[in-house]
């Protein structure tokens, strides 16, 4: 009897230890809102949209303790639309948002491989945009945060540990073409955090060449994006600032290039962006007022400039549920084709109002 009890106790202890070493979490966001858009060639559009503040998603995140401060990690994340239940991408990818596996060391940093965000986009969404890339005021409306500037497949990412407030992030995306440099993407960021200050400098480099191996490489040049993103928490308010430079083919792309015309408007290959914004906590810090102003300065002859102002409010109904409301207006110049969208959708016109709810689990 004693031997049986001892055996059960040992097995229970081993089971608990194994459970403590491995952990898998299911997480997600369900976000939906009513969106009213104005100013596009489609006229006034009112619709139910998914992913207004944050893209609706479901994901699986796991870690395994390998000992000695080393862990194996993975993330698999897919986006979906609440309005109709479909995947939120045209390519029908199962894990279109993130899919990576790697190792994390307490002393050496983190190395991951797969489909991942670029350091440039992380700087914009995590540091520089008071709307955090969502709602009608999203910085994605004017800053070039789409396509592979946002995330890329076939990538390797290394993140350093934090040293005296400094940390780094390095990104390499394989082009997987006959010429090794064709289609590849390079990115890097340096961050600094100290008290209320959070600052990050990020860079993205995209090789637009194509090489099939059956014909000479088609040389299309390099697209480059650099970004300075800063926020400072004064407790009574948090101030935000961003400045970006974009040069070369595909350094920017209109999210909706035919919003106002039947012919696609060509994107600039030389532009500057800047943003100033603020978050103000209210209602005992359960709510926050958000505002921003941003501008695009096109350096090409076409001079397709634009500016946007935006105002929003988010209120924490509970720990996991948030209600939101926002409005933004873009002024396009000389035929520019910037539109007011949200986190997931590009938008159809130069102004938009949205109201909705986000639940996290």
UniProtKB/TrEMBL annotation:
Gene3D superfamilies the record matches: Porin
Organism: Pseudoduganella flava
Membrane topology note: Multi-pass membrane protein
Superkingdom of origin: Bacteria
Protein name per Swiss-Prot or TrEMBL: Porin
Pfam families from the UniProt entry: Porin_4
Signal peptide: 1-20
Cellular component GO terms, alphabetical: cell outer membrane; pore complex
Domain Porin: 8-334
Intracellular or extracellular location(s): Cell outer membrane
GO process terms (BP): monoatomic ion transmembrane transport
Keywords, ordered alphabetically: Cell outer membrane, Ion transport, Membrane, Porin, Signal, Transmembrane, Transmembrane beta strand, Transport
UniProt GO MF annotations: porin activity
Predominant localisation class: membrane
Subunit structure: Homotrimer.
Record keyword Ion transport present: yes
